[in-house]
Amino acid sequence: MNDSKWTWRSVSLISIATTLVLITGFGYAVSDVLFPKGDIPLTSLPQATPAPENGAVKSFKVVALGDSLAKGTGDNTGNGYVKNTVAGLAASGVSAELLGNMGINGLTTAGLQNKLKDAGIQYSLRQANVILLSIGGNDLFRGADLLQNGGAGNTPAGSSVGTTGETGTGTKPGTAEGKHSGTGTTPGASGEKETNDLTPESLLAALPEAAERLGKILNTISEINPAARIYYVGLYNPFGDVQEMLVPGNQAVTAWNNAAMDIINRNSKITLVPTFDLFNNHLDKYLSSDHFHPNSDGYKRIGERIVQAIQ
Amino acid sequence: MINLLPLIRNECLKIIKKKRFYVILLILIVLVPMFTYAQMRIAERSRDKFNSDWRLEIQQQITDNENSLGSDRIPEEWKSYRRIFVQQLQYYLDHNVNPNEPSGVTFTRQFLDNSVSLFIPLLIMAIASDLVSGERTTGTIKMLLTRPVRRWKVLFSKMTALLMFVSLIVLSTFIISYLISGLVFGFKGFNVPVFTGFQISGDTVDMSGVHAVPQWKYLLMQGGLIWYVSVVVALLAFMVSVLVRSTAASIVVMMAALIAGTILTNMASAWTTAKYLFMVNLGLTGYLSGTPAPIEGMSLSFSLIVLAIWAAVSVIISFAVFTKRDILN
């Protein structure tokens, strides 16, 4: 009897105390959710770049940035050139790690300029000493999306297998400019209708502005992290297998690569990794079934190229 | 009033003597280590991948989610969920606060966020579903009702005892998950800031109300909301236990309702009137952490009112039925 008296006392006391505490918490919670008072903390991400390692122990810290190529779209192993590069570096005996892959499908130069304002992206870039960048394909071939969609519709079997489950090229958000725009509900629907035909003129029309943005992007990146080496992956012509697109595509891509080379030559920290020759005449071997992105072999080749450029 | 206290005491002792509460503690002690271990493996893996820099990890998470936003294959609701998620992550990152700072306190917070709509209600049911129907199954209800005590007093004492144990269950869930995860992740972390006050409208998050709350206070608020949910579930289970004669049936009824709730919250966004069901409204802590409500038009006050109405109706039904019904066999 004494025993149960004590259990009762402790149980009742604890439960009453707990109930009171919980009701207080409930009151706090309700007032907090219903009438939130904004108070923005003033902390921000650390701005310092980690001290560069002294030469002897060389280890590569890789960050990738850019469009669907950086992301690895089309590679059914999921590696993309980024992981291939890291693996290639590691295989050659140096330590290499991938700090992050900020590749976003359908990113254009304008979109990337916005991204570079993000504190988180800047932070990631500061941690790296090797920055891989691929951008520009979506500026140049923006009109090509439509062509893609049409082609994919005709050959459904080919279009659905190869892409790694994310997107094809057909789903470039028209508002790649950023996450804060909540309007990307019908990706790309607006931008594509205007440029139905892929003519040399339409390809080249976008070039000067986009090239200027590329220059700004490269400058911004080297301002964010002056110590890192930047490797820019040049464009290839994905439409070499379409007869009427072969020449204009080649011209546009070459013009773009020349423009990029022009910018890059002014900064010794930046290297252009050419891919045009890799894919020229080998499209059936290295292009994935969406006829736009490289397949896993293609990415492997790009990765090898970058490894050669780094070492 | 005088003879109510001994009745409540009697009911409390019955709950303890039936060892239901120990079963609940045992379930917690067995299951929480499993969740802790799983969480530990996740933490280990991301430490390997991201060089133990959470900022890189969050940035990668943001990028991955942004990528999936472009996909046509993902339903619109998931996309808006992810858009909101991305904005919140970005906010944490911009203010240099790790949303998943590994510690026993953080684990407790996340564990409770996940368990509010199913796990804790199940624990509550273990006591509540048995309270009246158990007496009928064993036949002891006749003993109870032949005493010179008004029937409503008998039921009221049972309900009070139940509410006392609801508080104890919520408390012990907190304590056990804190102690066990603390062994692995460390016992610190009460002062780590957590952001709350994300106001969600459609796809976008209004950041103007966002403020940092120390984690201990967040846990307190979370506890309050969980307690409210638990009380409502307890009262509902109590009603079912009055209405149904066998304990098994009473448990099944409540369990089915709860599980239906989790299924509905995953797919009911098209059926908007489902928001008046109690089981869809159980995730109150989501309003605190800024998770979008499962169905459009739900808000904290809406959910609180819906739950309160369900609870009030079930109390009324319980008393009406229990005081009127003939006790046969």
TrEMBL record, chain B:
GO terms for molecular function: ABC-type transporter activity. GO terms for cellular component: plasma membrane. It comes from the Bacteria. Keywords: Membrane, Transmembrane, Transmembrane helix. The keyword RNA-binding does not apply. Pfam families: ABC2_membrane_2. The chain crosses the membrane at residues 21-40, 116-134, 155-180, 225-244, 251-278, 298-322. This is ABC transporter permease.
